[in-house]
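Support case: user asked for a sample of complex input and structure output to validate their parser. Sending the pair below.
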Amino acid sequence: MLKHDHLRIAAYAIFIVTVLSLPVFFDEFWLNRASKYLVYGMLGIAISLCWGYAGILNLGQGLFFGAGAYMLGMSLKLASPTSLQQGGAGPVPDFMLWNAEPGAVTDLCCINSGSYLWLPFQSQAFGFIMAIVLPVLLAFILGSVMFRKGVSGVFISIITLALVLLVRLLVVDAQALTGGFNGLTDLGGLTFGGYEFDPYSVATYYLAAVSLILILLGTRLLVNSRAGLVMQGIRDDENRAKYLGFDAAAYQTFFFCVSAAISGFAGLLYVVTSEFVSPTFMDLAFSISMVIWAAVGGRGSLLGACIGAIVINMLGATISESEVFVESWQAIVGLFFVLVVLFMPNGMAGVVHGWCRRLTTKSSKSEIGGQLQ
Amino acid sequence: MLDTILIGLSLGSILLLVALGLSIIYGSMGVINMAHGELVMIGAYSTVLAQIHMGLSLFAAIPLAFVVCFALGLLIEKFVVRRLYGRLFDTLLATWGVAILLQQAIRLEFGLSFFGIHIAGLGPGLQSVKVPDLLSEPIFIGEFLIQPYRAFIIIISILLAVITWLLMYKTRMGQQIRAIMRNKDMAAACGINVRKVNALTFAYGAGLAGVAGVMMSGFKTVMPDMGSSLVVDGFLVVVVGGVGSLVGTIVASGLLGQVNGIFAALSNDIIARAIVFGVVIAIIIWRPQGLLNYKGR
């Protein structure tokens, strides 16, 4: 007897086993790439949680991703050999020296106005924690203002979209403090309890893989919990949920914050695997790409959105290596995306769900038939 | 001071041209057209192509771009938007896909670049358009220097806003559009061909975007991704002004254009844009329905 839940558990199990067993088949160069795809998978989960389950389409998810990336990136920048050997008492990022006024003290406290903000980032633990705390804080402030004020639907998308562009401009403009357009390059490695995570190592891959699996299972439990069910109720009919006495704004803010935390953590991991931070993380196109991954995979399915993000990026990277497709890959994504929205509103996961439902109903029918005979 | 205001006005009128189309499309059809910026881009490329291949001036490109984008709008409506009425988020996503497609079509010279065929004026490079002499000589009125091109943009925008107003409030078609805005089902029950009216509304909005593209091509470099930031600005104007309100759209584009112009003069372009975004966020949170919302929805 096949049940829908069993199929779902099987899908999760297959996914988890596949992710965990990749190091057996691939060398460290490919594992590094794979860990980036896993990071994108986390973003797919964050979007699905926020959009599919909470009904909040955030077009500025890159804000949280970027915030996480910059927070850890600042710590790792200070840990890089070049920053450590600038002749000052402590580490100083190289771009600060290039931007410094002549005669400025080569020290993080006062090399330019605002550089003291970098001081606590000498501790990697601080950068690590802030990479999650800052996105959550941003989401909490933004979410509580928006949801309390009754801003809803597409207006939330417009606000988040404007916000990510605003922050991107500010980051680019504060060249002396953030590296401007160049972002943060030449980063040191993340060290944890004396162990340094080399981006091209099995350990770093497992860091990403285990994180992804924990996030996937955690969010799965969350959406099945009472809070998750209430949230889906609010998504389907906000007024009805309010009349039943639920504080819709509080639930929405909470889910918005969880999604931000996942994105911030993804940003952090992306920095560990790719060794740079760039303001392009906060480009509108990147934020919308995340939504595309989740929509193609299936916004209403955490696993679907996650796999969607991984597969699209994997295909994109592979295809854009062959010369003919470098240029047309974007067009293919665009066309594919239009077709998915038009004909598969629930994405790939929706199609698979449909098959499974047919499979399960058929088997239960034959069972009934068997009993009758 | 006067020149700062004039710069703000011309920025505002470009915004207005972009936002007018978005506003009537969103207002009457409930469709968020993320490909609107790409229609502006197509308008700009029509000017480039008309200049290179047909020797047409910028003035002649205005009706041409309108017709090209009108036709393209009809196609987009027929193949994509029509299937998505009532699914607001999906229109946003699908038209974003259309936007990517249009951008790549220009970049790949409609796919001909794969066969080694190149059309002058298309491709990933930057293009520029020659402004007619009539519009490039600065005019002095007293001691004020006026850039005739900026004045031209403002005049064309006002003209188009007036035409749009006349269409919306003085014609049978406009009456039908407003009826659909109020209540689509009731309008359909009263014998209005909602599909046809919607298709024409969408195409008209697309045509306006094309004209905006002609205006843009005169003072900015023309490139395949010039549209993506425009659609964002256009949307902010629409939302700030209040959905479906023509007056609101005009007020909001004037306001945001001035804020941008003044702060660009005081500090730099980046900070000015950042302040515009900040103002927009504050206004949406303060009045989620926009400054002047369309009553009765």
